[in-house]
Amino acid sequence: MGSKVLLSAAFSLLVAWPTLSGDTFLFFTQVPAPDTYRGKYRDNEYSLTELTDLYVKEVKDVIESLRTQGRSPAAFIAESMQSCGGQVIYPPQYLSRVKK
Fold first, then answer.
1. HEC string of the chain?
2. What is the mean pLDDT of the chain?
3. Which pLDDT belongs to residue 1?
4. pTM for the complete prediction?
5. Can you name the residues that pair with 28 across neighbouring β-strands?
């Protein structure tokens, strides 16, 4: 059975991997914060629809990469509105599309 991954909108992914001895190893990987002002993709370069598509694709790409390694997502944890260095409002439909 593959390990499970916790996807987090604090933008770290947690992989819990139980061993035969009963120990659990935890692993993290990251996805970019969907910050349309200072993030990887910005609202001065893309429409809001394109921003949503781009940031959702980042999550999908990480999930697909995990699946090729025999792992799968366990959960996605996100703040309803990220609050670091100001309020970061996600692109429209970001959370609902990541949920799908």
1. CCCEEEEECCCEEEEEEECCCCCEEEEEEECCCCCCCCCCCCCCCCCHHHHHHHHHHHHHHHHHHHHHCCCEEEEEECCCCEECCCEECCCCCHHHHHHC
2. 76
3. 45
4. 0.73
5. 14
